[in-house]
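Exercise 7. Predict the joint structure of the components listed below.
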Amino acid sequence: MAAPDSDTTPDTNSPDTTPDTNSPDTTPDAVPHSGPVPPTPPAQETAPVPRWHRHSDGAVLLDGFHALKHAVRFGAEVEVAVTADRAAALALADELAPDVLEALAALLTEVPYATYASLVPRPHPTAVAALAVRPSRAGNLAGLARTPRTAPVVVLDQPRNLGNAGAVIRLAAGFGATGVVTTGTLDPWHPTVVRGGAGLHFATAVERLSVDELPAGPVFALDPEGEDIRALRLPDDALLAFGSERSGLSPELRARADHLVALPMRPQVSSYNLATSVAMTLYHWSAAGGAPV
Ligand SMILES: C[S@@+](CC[C@H](N)C(=O)[O-])C[C@H]1O[C@@H](n2cnc3c(N)ncnc32)[C@H](O)[C@@H]1O
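Solution:
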């Protein structure tokens, strides 16, 4: 049996699949606090553990400072946020994200480290965690369907690797893509995907759909056998589709594709990693003048 490509393992059954995306930023985990620590929230707000358990069903786990920072920045409704070191978390905000310092000061409650660790699958170096309301599917579907579309939708066709999916959502957010749609069984809101995406699920529309349900628009499906991307201009309303790490594009997606597009690659190299393929393709689209601003 042929060995799988390097980004095919581990798959969605393994919780720890994030390739180099677990540390969303290269920023220090904690820095000395430089300014005054905003006051602790009022007494009725300081019983976070029961609140955590009350809200945990169906909520989005924001694991670490950067995920919480991004989620707040992009309008997430945060139900509860805890940290084992409030001064360090607010010092990070002061240093790296002063725009959300006040909001984080109002949200974050300090709990003992053991309490924090009991709430998350794997403690994060910043010892920050929060629960946010998952954006409504109806709202996301409306956003994905809205026309005229000014930025592409990224379609991951039956992805397997949670880390890849997170990295792609982060890319989509960075490039101002309309959204990320996955087909197949991977849950794009899985905590490991949210962790890999650094909380940027709130900056774009993320949903799982079948190929039949994809939004309208021309499908440019990425495949090494396609037409060289350098000869193409990708339109703003494109659906940019990428195959699974293991087996490439599914027959259903191929049947829906209007164009097959190849990324330049030397002979004898079989393929690129899924997330890097998305990065190159979004960059190619943006180089013609699409978002970001
Ligand atoms: C890891 S590759 C899939 C490799 C898989 N073994 C196959 O048979 O295609 C994941 C996806 O990245 C995209 N991709 C990777 N390299 C590409 C290239 N050179 N040109 C276009 N797309 C590429 C394709 O969408 C592909 O389905």
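Discussion. The two ends are 47 Å apart (CA to CA).
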